[in-house]
Design brief:
single chain, Immunoglobulin-like, Rossmann fold, 7-stranded mixed beta sheet, 7 helices, 28% helix
């Protein structure tokens, strides 16, 4: 039985991926090169998704309604959605490893609990990583369904004690400030455009700097990190470094930025799928 995630090939605006034993072909605009594998291999995918004439799955009925992916010590409930998503963004796997290691090291060094807030948290990969590292984690998303999905992922991994929040990110952070609650680490992957269950609208070009100001205000006096990632075109690694340094002005720290990648075997082209910046306070 095959486990884990693997990028099998990409090109011609598509990507071929394996999620456990399920192989899927989906759109990927940045894959402008030619595929390496022959067309016959792509045609053997269990199902495919395209956005021509609306969002459509082909072969969706052949897939299990739900299945479990186990990758690098983490388990996820997967399911196809009408938008082509599955409940996991595997390009975040390197970030999850970094979160887990950073939190675990801080817990060992500080000999106390480390608090981590995950905003726009989707199905909870970063939340799981923080909790596995020993953090007291708070998970926030505006979608009740996604928070429930994340909670199920936590149960699948035997994790409890996570604080689950369905809310608009800014409204929640403002309430946390009034309550005097602070966090050692903050994780966020804000949408290019999003709308909450209460009709709240988020636009990254308008709202990101305000989001980061609230993040800075929510940091403890001995902060650990801010991890900002983005899937928005134009949010390059340098852009993310610039905004994070402005947001953390006055707090000594360092930043590392780069592209998030989907990866497979050594002979498979890594596929850029977003960007990140990891800001860590000096002394950590």
């Amino acid at each position: 039985m095959k486990k884990g995630y693997e990028l099998l090939d990409s090109g011609n605006g598509r990507k071929l991926e394996r999620f456990g034993e399920v192989v899927l072909a989906r759109p990927c605009a940045q894959a402008v090169w030619k595929p390496t594998l022959p067309r016959s291999v792509w045609e053997q995918a269990n199902a495919s998704f395209d956005r021509e004439d609306g969002n459509r799955w082909h072969g969706r009925a052949k897939l299990p309604e739900h299945w479990i992916l186990e990758d690098r010590g983490m388990k996820f409930h997967l399911s196809t959605t009408d938008f082509g998503h599955l409940g996991i963004f595997p390009e975040q796997r390197a970030q999850w490893a970094w979160i887990r290691e950073t939190v675990a090291a801080a817990v060992a060094k500080r000999k106390r609990e480390v608090s981590v807030l995950n905003l726009f948290a989707y199905s909870g990969g970063s939340t799981l990583a923080a909790a596995m590292g020993g953090a007291k984690a708070t998970h926030l998303d505006a979608s009740r369904g996604m928070v429930q999905w994340a909670s199920e992922n936590a149960s699948l991994n035997g994790l409890d004690g996570i604080r689950w929040i369905v809310d608009d990110a800014h409204k929640f952070m403002q309430r946390e400030l009034r309550r005097g609650r602070k966090y050692d680490g903050i994780i966020l992957d804000p949408p290019t455009f999003g709308r909450g269950e209460g009709g709240e609208m988020y636009k990254i070009e308008r709202d990101l700097m305000n989001t980061l100001k609230l993040c800075r205000d929510l940091l403890t006096d001995d902060p650990l990190f801010i991890l900002l990632s983005s899937h928005t075109p134009g949010c390059t690694p340098q852009v993310l470094e610039n905004v994070i340094f402005q947001a953390t002005a006055g707090i000594p720290g360092n930043a590392q930025s780069g592209e998030m990648l989907l990866t497979g075997a050594d002979d498979v082209f890594p596929l850029p799928s977003g960007t990140y910046v990891r800001w860590t306070a000096k002394g950590n």
